[in-house]
Amino acid sequence: MSVATARKLEAGAARGLLRRVPEAVSIRLASLVVLAVAWQAASILFTERFVPGPASTFAALWDLARGGELIKHFGVTMARMLASFAAAMLVGMVIGTAMGLYRRAEQSLDMWVMVGLTIPGLCYIIVSFMWLGLNDRAAVLAITWATFPAIAINVWQGVKAIDPRLIDMARVFGASAWRRTTRVVVPQVLPYLMAAARFGLGIIWKVTVLVELLGRSDGIGYMLNYSFQMFDMADVFAWTIFFTLVMLAIELAILKPIERRLFMWRPEIRA
Amino acid sequence: MADIEVRRLSKVYRSRAHPDGLLALDGIDLAVADHQFVCLLGPSGCGKSTVLNVLCGLDPQYAGEVRVAGRVVSRANGHPFRVGYVFQEPRLLPWLTVRRNVEFALQSEGIAKSEWRARCDGWLGRVGLADFAEAHPHELSGGMQQRTAIARAFAVDPEILLMDEPFSGLDELTARTMRELLLSIWLETKKTVIFVTHNCFEACFLADRIVVFTARPGRIKREVTIELPRPRNYEDARLFELSVSVTHHVTGTTARGTRLPD
Ligand SMILES: Nc1ncnc2c1ncn2[C@@H]1O[C@H](COP(=O)(O)OP(=O)(O)OP(=O)(O)O)[C@@H](O)[C@H]1O
Ligand SMILES: [Mg+2]
């Protein structure tokens, strides 16, 4: 089946569905189908050895799941990611808030968070492993270290963007300090915190697999490397697809709904 | 309700641009009786907003003596009287609906929840926003946002009402309707009002008394009492004459362009 006929079929199916499915969803579905078709075509063109098709990839994934490896290594990776994410958010929020509030903190730190952002994650990983040994403490340290500058920068921007005139308004109407903070300041910073979380998750996934590849004997990064050593392309694809699906699920099931609830009032974000 | 007493109020701003301090207000004396509607009139940068910020307690760093309803205004005194402040911009919380914005002020002032509904509906109705109570600020026009801010200021049942050029961002037609609305509300509630403007006609239309400021540092240059009967009318010829003569006080020139002796 050529791409053109696939598109035509697609369009027909989309028109039929449009009456019930919102446009945003049908466009996403369409792009998914197009991608799957292209994937299959590439697999035929370059042979299964180099580009395993969807069928053999999901077969490999099924094997990994049945053997129990999938859940084990996924669990380990998630645990590392979540621990580092929590630590990076904490450190990033403290530093970002200090930079946003105090000119001295801003002047002394702004260059260093920028530097922190540009240093490759690999450097943090190697240094952490050399300091603490090949263990999980070093892994969490490295991931946190590589992630918090991006979070700090977002929080810093958020704190700087707080509108003091709204705080004055609240004060004039007699709002207590607690009320001014929770009802006027925090809602203004929340969009930036969400952006920080997004950035953080994006970086964390990339650094975590690298950490596991270099210094751990479990986790998805380790298994990716193992499949590489075996030259098992189907497994490489299976791990990658699996993790992509997990990240998508986090985005659609956790981040998007939170955002929708928080920012319903904003004209630019529509449900 | 409250009277206002300001004695020898001076204000120096310190900033990086002016490390030795910038004298914004220089010895202001001002007494406003209960129920009076006073307009502060003066050129840009003469310190009108500064006076309001001192009066409402936002700016506790001043020299002199400021009392509202007999109580000294300072940070240590907290929030001893209710202020309704209409800022030059609407200053609404964008994530709250119009109703929740008004309720935010009511709750901040510690007003019982059982009264919220009636007060919100009442004041939003008065400013013509009954149908927009559940809308968010970004769904409103600039004039509607400013009307929300006015409803919010009246809803807390303030002892003094401070208004900082509330209509200067509006087109003249809307501004006229808003001035008429404000006067009709004021005639009923008789709050003590301090209204900042640099529009002479607006000042004459609204005020019992006009206090004219000099350019920075702000001093009181002249006071004008407006004795036109209320309710007032835009078409009134005396209003027009008065506003011309007040304009001359402000600019310091006569109609022929020569300087008036001070
Ligand atoms: N936060 C501040 N820091 C330093 N200087 C300030 C500050 N606020 C006001 N000033 C100075 O004080 C003077 C009076 O300012 P103010 O805002 O009270 O003027 P205004 O009469 O309200 O003017 P406008 O009609 O333009 O609103 C100005 O010259 C301004 O430069
Ligand atoms: Mg001003």
Tell me briefly what this model is.
With 271 residues, chain A is mainly alpha-helical. Chain A has one domain (68-262): MetI-like (MetI-like fold).
Question: What do these coordinates show?
Answer:
The complex is a heterodimer of chains A (271) and B (262). By secondary structure, chain A is mostly helical. Chain A has a single domain (68-262), classed as MetI-like fold, CATH 1.10.3720.10. Helices cover 85% and strands 0% of the residues of chain A. Chain A has helices at residues 3-18, 23-50, 54-66, 69-101, 103-118, 121-132, 136-160, 164-172, 177-215, 220-229, 233-262. In chain A, helix 9 packs parallel to helix 10. The relative contact order of chain A is 0.10. Chain B has a domain at 1-81 and 196-262: P-loop containing nucleotide triphosphate hydrolases (Rossmann fold). Chain B has helices at 48-55, 98-108, 113-126, 142-155, 172-189, 200-206, 237-251, and strands at 4-13, 22-32, 37-41, 63-68, 71-72, 83-86, 160-164, 192-197, 209-213, 220-225. In chain B, the strands form two sheets. Chain B has a six-stranded mixed β-sheet, with helices on both faces. A four-stranded antiparallel β-sheet of chain B has the order 2-1-4-5, covered by helices on one side. In chain B, strand 7 (160-164), helix 5 and strand 8 (192-197) form a beta-alpha-beta unit. The longest helix of chain B has 18 residues, at 172-189. Chain B is globular. The A-B interface holds A 165-166, 168-176, 179, 183-184, 187, 263, 265-267 and B 56-58, 79, 82-83, 85, 87, 89, 91, 93-97, 104-105, 108-110, 136, 138-139, 152, 156. Bound molecules: adenosine-5'-triphosphate (ATP) and magnesium ion.
